[in-house]
Amino acid sequence: EDQVTQSPEALRLQEGESSSLNCSYTVSGLRGLFWYRQDPGKGPEFLFTLYSAGEEKEKERLKATLTKKESFLHITAPKPEDSATYLCAVQENTGGFKTIFGAGTRLFVKA
Amino acid sequence: ETGVTQSPTHLIKTRGQQVTLRCSSQSGHNTVSWYQQALGQGPQFIFQYYREEENGRGNFPPRFSGLQFPNYSSELNVNALELDDSALYLCASGGPNTGELFFGEGSRLTVL
Lengths: 111, 112
Prior knowledge:
The structure holds 2 protein chains of 2 kinds.
Chain A: E1 3-7, E2 10-14, E3 19-26, E4 30-38, E5 45-50, E6 56-59, E7 62-66, E8 70-75, E9 84-92, E10 99-101, E11 105-110
Parallel strand pairs in A: 2-11
Antiparallel strand pairs in A: 1-3, 3-8, 4-5, 4-9, 6-7, 7-8, 9-10, 9-11
Chain B: E1 5-7, E2 10-13, E3 19-24, E4 31-37, E5 44-50, E6 53-57, E7 64-68, E8 73-78, E9 87-94, E10 102-103, E11 107-111
Parallel strand pairs in B: 2-11
Antiparallel strand pairs in B: 1-3, 3-8, 4-5, 4-9, 5-6, 7-8, 9-10, 9-11
């Protein structure tokens, strides 16, 4: 069964303190791995898609990387506005577009 | 803004009742999927529609059903509501060849 596990559950950082969020996954055939940001009371907002091991994507202070078993979301010099829940999700390549989400990492960045 | 709109934003129902949630997808996106998100959890896949036909379903009972219409709108229907159905229900649309999803703001359902 496809599974997505994110760690840590919550992360508290000082402004400017870089860190990484982890997403480990089990899927029979990976079509794509996705990162989303979700603010309280809002729907998830798409950030990145990664398709194959070794691939990297960057957007402002965020950088996502992918290996065969896990993905990392690196946050460089975070700001308070980066505070949100970050969700990792996978799609398998067996037809359809069923997306399996992890439980998310809640990030708090203090000024 | 994603262009995906959902209604209503909040609603309260009692156990045993039925509810219909609505979604208007982004123009040009012919897939729509619905997710249930309990507090503190990630979204759980309910089902997906492609060109008005269901083409994927998660571990949800048949009392969860849906429809997709030609005008990019869709519905999620839940019959015989249970207390555990209380959650944020998210609608997401996507293009035919990309996997990324564009979510609406969700409908917050409370079952008493």
